[in-house]
Amino acid sequence: MSYPYQITNIEQYHRDYKRSIEDPAEFWSTIAEHFTWKKKWHTTLNWNFSEPKIEWFKGAKLNITENCLDRHLEKFGDTPALIWEPNDPDEHHRILTYRKLYEKVCQFSHVLKNNGVKKGDRVCIYMGMIPELAIAVLACARVGAIHSVVFGGFSAQSIADRLYDAQAEYIVTCDGAYRGQKDIPLKSVIDDALIGNRIVKKVIVTTRTRTPVSMIKGRDLWWEDEIKKVETLGLTDFPAEEMDAEDPLFILYTSGSTGKPKGVVHSCAGYMLFTTYTFVNVFQYQQGDIHFCTADIGWITGHSYILYGPLSAGATTLMFEGVPTWPDAGRFWNIIDKFKVNILYTAPTAIRSLMGFGLGPVHGHDLSSLKVLGTVGEPINEEAWHWYDEHIGKKKCPIVDTWWQTETGGILISNLAGITPSKPSFATLPLPGVHPILVDENGKEVEGNNVSGNLCIKSPWPSTIRTTYGDHERCKTNYFATYPNLYFTGDGALRDENGFYRITGRVDDVLNVSGHRIGTAEVENAINMHANVVESAVVGYPHDIKGQGIYAFVIYQGSHAQNTHGTAEMIRKDIHQTVSRIIGAIAKPDKIQFVSGLPKTRSGKIMRRILRKIAEGETENLGDISTLLDPGVVEEIKNGKL
Ligand code: WT7
Q1: Whose CA is nearest to atom 24 of ligand 1?
Q2: Beta strands in 93-228 (DSSP E)
Q3: 491 in contact with ligand 1, CB cutoff 6 A
Q4: DSSP label at 39?
């Protein structure tokens, strides 16, 4: 069975695309008719990019969880909504039908309410990939609280910053999380994050690893005890809070070119519509298919394509707790075989890392259930694309290369599986409702084909970022001020002779390491926190598996070679430790080169362009270095390259 708004052939794609650009309000209001509303809208779209102000479906009332759960109960009550595969393949998997998931979400909504959580309150969620994470997210949405999920790899300091920025009063966490061989003590990280915090009132802790945790009277509560109380009262339903179309649904922090992550805010109606529409169309989901997105719910991909998009479409979504390489590098293939997965959506990094293990781990697993493959998060190189196509899709599964961002909420540029053509390393064509344009440095539109430029979007799609939490001005300067009246993505792109887009990577000081966005300024700030670091400069360099690696040039007090703190290797480890504490292990530099100075202009600005070239292995064409304060430093840095 397909969906009323499903694009089923290429002519329809072109027709729908044209309609969506000519009259977006008409186009999206027709699609919105297929959702459940408590009250209909009076104005479909009202916008200007100068403030920015973006309002979709103004006047409408809804709750996204009624669309993700309640409306499916009658037809799909016994259909699996969520399949959960644990980290350890010997542990039993869990299946939550739509009815079961509905009940669990309702129960936890009561728990939230009983503990004082109200509409508009911020709830920070810091958990491993267990069903309770999905339940907590949906329960927040049901009571109208704004969730802020923080990825389990972030440090206590990062959590503390995010808690403060969002003024969050509640936390939902686990004792610990399993990831491969590791057992990560999440609650203890939360305890560290809460030292000195006077805002958080309650911390709800679910048990997973049963690692010892400290539970503070009056603040910390066991999830299981709180659920018991609700069960005793026999509460199985929870009336969904009536939300305004434009009420915030969640905050998700992401890195930019400044040192401080931004709280990207998405709102209820537009986000719901666009994630559902893109899920159904990009992956060409058919009722009954099993969709496996390997992302973590701590990132936007997990929010949109493990949870909200699939559940709103009444799909079966598979959530995996572990990592692709444990107990062996055949884990994804084992899961696909075990559950007869139809759609696999993963990151180029994962594909490249699995490629490195050869075909051994692929053999012996039946992958014939696969129909569609997807990639996300970073440019996919042709070699990885072909390996994915040949060895996983057996040349019979279309690959969708989906380009989007935390700020866009859903996929903006991608082929539609089996409907529009694919081209290796090209995201290809925009989704209906998405109007990309390329501009040069001066903001002048680059027209025609076979051209490249900075990628911007001309008009709002339903899940456009609405604001950056607590600082609307920042949203404006970051995304809507570089080029007046355009949303600037921060990415460079080229458009080929067919009008297909290829995303070439960030044009700002943002790195993409294993599909994770990290700001160079953030990493520099963290490195500079080390007591003996005088200054540092961080750039990206091509990395075979991660896509980009982090290369840090560091000036260490009193020269690293002659000091009392041990060898250069020991000092590198100290710096790693510092970065892990300040940001998290994901931001640890891959290479640290000690230098006596950095290439600076006379006005003191670091010439990153030169450092980037050196890190990339370029020794000759470094460009004009005559304007440097001390051109001699370049020679030293070149000679010391790692
Ligand atoms: C940045 C957004 C989108 C969810 C995961 C990452 C890069 C994303 C692609 C792609 C080339 C891609 C861009 C973008 N990116 N998808 N298919 N091809 N690059 O979300 O952390 O917000 O990062 O990821 O550079 O700006 P994010």
Answers
A1: 377
A2: 94-97, 122-126, 146-149, 170-174, 177-179, 182-184, 202-206, 220-222
A3: yes
A4: B
Mean pLDDT of the chain: 96
Ligand 1 center to residue 41 CA distance, Å? 32
What are the tens digits of pLDDT across the range 445-496? 999 999 999 999 999 999 999 999 999 999 999 999 999 999 999 999 999 9
The one-letter amino acid code at 494 reads L
Q: Which CATH architecture has domain 67-115+125-237?
A: 3-Layer(aba) Sandwich (3.40)
pLDDT of amino acid 34: 98
Largest CA distance in the chain: 77
Residue minimizing CA distance to atom 12 of ligand 1: 378
| DSSP states of 343-366 | EEEE-HHHHHHHHTT-STTTTTS-
For residue 574, the one-letter residue type is D
Which amino acid belongs to residue 625?
A: I
Asked whether residue 6 carries a pLDDT value surpassing 90, the answer given is yes
Radius of gyration of the chain (CA): 24
- CA 155: distance to chain centroid? 17
Is the pLDDT at 429 greater than 70, yes or no?
A: yes
Over residues 213-231, the pLDDT tens digits come to 999 999 999 999 999 999 9
Ligand 1 centroid – CA 267 distance (Å): 21
Tokens of 532: 């003996």
Q: Which helix (H) or strand (E) holds 571?
A: helix 568-582
In this structure, what is the dihedral angle of CA atoms 376, 380, 384, 389, given to the nearest 10 degrees? 60
pLDDT at position 247: 98
CA–CA gap between residue 150 and residue 299 (Å, rounded)? 8
Q: Atom 5 in ligand 1: which residue has the minimum CA distance? A: 377
Which fold, 512-639? GMP Synthetase; Chain A, domain 3 (3.30.300)
Domain boundaries, given as residue ranges, for the chain: 67-115+125-237, 512-639
Distance from the Cα of residue 542 to its chain's centroid:
21
Question: Is 78's pLDDT higher than 80?
Answer: yes
Checking DSSP bridges between strand 343-346 and strand 372-376, what pairing results, if any? Answer: parallel
The verdict on the CB of residue 301 being under 6 Å from ligand 1 is yes
Q: Give the pLDDT confidence of 490-518 residue by residue, as tens digits.
A: 999 999 999 999 999 999 999 999 989 99
